[in-house]
Design goal:
This protein is of the alpha+beta class and 340 residues long. The chain is built from 11 helices and 11 strands. It has 2 domains: 3-172; 195-329, Yope Regulator, Chain: A (2-Layer Sandwich). α2 (14-28) packs across α3 (30-47) and α9 (259-270) crosses α11.
Length: 340
């Protein structure tokens, strides 16, 4: 049993949950602690004339007196320097209370610390005053760390905690870009645009099958698909996006708030797919108000597999993943023939 993955579903505090497992790995696995410290702090320490960084103490959810701050993780080095780490998945920085409404990183930089590390699942650079601050630990060439930066450090077989985290990182998409696709949401705008344009060409079979099932197919952000106006489906619309660094999302909006029925249909078909998938009911804003949706979440690497390098193979993999999900949403009397 993977305790990281099996306990993740028990809490909505996913960022805190990930933090606690990272902290445990740092405490109990010396090889991971050394590699992690070298990755985030070696260059930063050298520039400041510190000794080679060595983490002595790890604490989580630390409250600093006389402040509105509670960083996710605090690292105390052997030489006495203190580095705080703020961990995010999809969430943005939160603002403080009325007496100090600044965002988290701005407030953290005022603490009696020596360094601030920021880690996210996708790219969302902090404000310029944070990036330029002497305490901000900035990776060479990038605005902040990504969770996938730590994936190579999770060596299989070194420690059970690392095995759990490695499997979890693969499920969450915290891995390098797929070799057959490349970056679509990275820091190089021209490379991103080229890769998105090339990926969009792979949707041809999915578009055709969606139309056959009765959907009107539109596009968004080049690589995203919007399916709508299908009278033969239990869903009013379906949004498909492989855009995020760490996520392949199929978002289903049920008709008439029939969320539980849609979730049941999707869970039934997902059990037969050879892909690790999470199904989550969420509430999202729309023009007419907030609505409940069913998110089918996987990763591009899971959907395509490591062997899908040529376009025909990738097209087939995308079709094999999306089609069963759309078929599960078809109403009983039209399922299988798309109502045509």
């Amino acid at each position: 049993m993977n305790l990281f993955w099996s306990t993740r579903i028990l809490t909505d505090a996913r960022e805190d949950h990930l933090t606690e497992f990272i902290a445990a790995a740092l405490k109990y696995c010396q090889s991971f602690r050394s590699a992690y410290t070298a990755l985030i702090l070696a260059g930063f320490a050298k520039e400041r004339g510190w000794p080679e960084p060595e983490v002595l103490e790890i604490a989580t959810q630390v409250t600093f007196p006389d402040s509105t701050c509670r960083p996710d993780m605090v690292l105390t080095l052997k030489d006495g320097h203190v580095v705080v780490c703020e961990h995010k998945l999809d969430a943005l920085e939160t603002a403080g209370p009325d007496r100090d409404p600044r965002t988290q990183l701005n407030r953290y930089l005022d603490l009696p610390i020596d360094g601030l590390v920021y880690v996210r699942s996708d790219w969302k650079p902090p404000a310029s005053e944070v990036l330029e601050h002497e305490k901000y630990v900035r990776p060479v060439g990038y605005a902040h760390f990504l969770w996938r930066d730590f994936f190579p450090l999770l060596a299989s077989g070194d420690h059970l905690l690392l095995d759990w985290l490695r499997d979890g990182f693969e499920r969450l998409g915290f891995t390098p870009p797929h070799a057959g696709v490349g970056e679509m949401d990275g820091t190089d705008a021209s490379e991103n645009a080229r890769n998105r344009t090339n990926f969009a060409k792979l949707w041809g079979p999915v578009r055709s099958e969606s139309c056959r099932l009765g959907w009107n197919v539109g596009s968004g952000s080049i690589v995203e698909l919007y399916l709508s106006e299908n009278s033969f489906s239990t869903a009013s619309d379906v949004f498909i996006s492989p855009m995020k660094v760490a996520r392949f999302l199929v978002r289903v909006t049920p008709r008439r708030e029939n969320v539980e029925e849609v979730e049941r249909r999707l869970r039934n078909v997902v059990a037969s797919l050879p892909v690790r998938i999470e199904i989550v009911i969420a509430t999202v804003p729309r023009k007419h108000g907030r609505v409940r949706v069913v998110n089918v979440v996987s990763t591009l690497r899971e959907v395509l597999g490591d062997d899908a390098m040529d376009p025909p193979n990738m097209e087939r993999k995308l079709l094999d993943y999306v089609t069963p999900l759309l078929q599960a949403l078809q109403t009983k009397e039209t399922k299988g023939d798309g109502g045509n």
